[in-house]
Amino acid sequence: xxxxxxxxxxxxxxxxxxxxxxxxxxxxxxxxxxxxxxxxxxxxxxxxxxxxxxxxxxxxxxxxxxxxxxxxxxxxxxxxxxxxxxxxxxxxxxxxxxxxxxxxxxxxxxxxxxxxxxxxxxxxxxxxxxxxxxxxxxxxxxxxxxxxxxxxxxxxxxxxxxxxxxxxxxxxxxxxxxxxxxxxxxxxxxxxxxxxxxxxxxxxxxxxxxxxxxxxxxxxxxxxxxxxxxxxxxxxx
Amino acid sequence: xxxxxxxxxxxxxxxxxxxxxxxxxxxxxxxxxxxxxxxxxxxxxxxxxxxxxxxxxxxxxxxxxxxxxxxxxxxxxxxxxxxxxxxxxxxxxxxxxxxxxxxxxxxxxxxxxxxxxxxxxxxxxxxxxxxxxxxxxxxxxxxxxxxxxxxxxxxxxxxxxxxxxxxxxxxxxxxxxxxxxxxxxxxxxxxxxxxxxxxxxxxxxxxxxxxxxxxxxxxxxxxxxxxxxxxxxxxxx
DNA sequence: GTGGGATTAATTGTCTGACATTTATGTAGG
DNA sequence: CCTACATAAATGTCAGACAATTAATCCCAC
Lengths: 237, 237
Description:
Chain A is mostly helical. Helices cover 68% and strands 3% of the residues of chain A. Chain A binds a DNA duplex through helix 3.
């Protein structure tokens, strides 16, 4: 970050260079969501390269969901409205890759997850609505089924916490947290819960819903810490 | 995660489909970092498509920094070790796009940033080392220069908080937070600080370093809340 | 035998031109 | 008015060629 080279954009492939130019046009606002790029033929002429090279550049941008393409008479490449869903999917994918490919240990991952989530609970206590409580209670009910597989239990846990984060009413926060939690899910799926562990988690979930209903953020923070410790104990058995 | 469609991979372009197949091979562990993919000719034959189509698929993967390519006799496409730097760059880019292209207001962005950061300060208090304090003090010294432009002040502020997050000693956390903060930076750069605002921020920074040195996480949380309120006041003047 | 330069082979990067497919639009006929 | 067909524009795919890069190999002079 500190060594921000001013002009290091040589040595690159043409397709990468062209992709970068278009990318800058989008970032700078010269191209805005919905705009149609020139056709591949026009782009190839404008940049002095073949159509194949232009196509490779466009595929790079498409892979980052910066553009989408449509065939047919009114088709072409269009600048994408970077939806929260797109960004979420990308971040979650990024997080999953990073964690699985770098053998991040579950202690580190859990610590990060609970630390991030902890930061949201005061906002959640302030802005929560009844449907958030309903969702969380529904997940708790599901978690009480002793027949539930570890994986399903974990999925329900994720849904529970997602609702908690959504209660903060801040889309940027929901998006960041959801991506982080989903990235960690593969690791969490490797946990095996004894029934005693599950009971402890469920009790904490119930206490959290109560605290959320009463809008007591400080209590939620304490409960989050308990939950983190409980999860780490489960992981280290 | 719940609606994991089993076979929705029709209707797509060949290049996208092939990219997805290779991507799954990487995610599943069939291909690990450092492995060399078959040559473009071999891939085109194996998948029954032309080399141009294979190349478009590879460019998609390269755009996600899942692979890198090298020319020459021992060249080819190699599975990337997904470094924290790569993941960080991607997440930061994602965050920037999301925030700028969706006109997220600065209140929402600030709220999210400080909420996330707040979750880290207890860990930071626990794991901080002297060089973190040194870095933060150095940034404070820079911030005291009244000649500093608003943009430079903001950059120093980012560096200060980055050091704070790094002090938590958790790479996953550092990576998530740094990306979030950098994504918000374009918005923060639009703030104009009066000298009074700057003095207030600097005082809080100094108090934070003291609290961090004394390892008092609770005090750090309170200071973060003050800092958030101060920043929001600056934004809404 | 050894060092160094030329050769060679493998691979990605780029270009060209063609054809297939998709999709909106215009047009003629009922 | 509505349908069916032709048309045009754009992306998607293909085949083949050549350029550029790089490591390994060969060969020859010393």
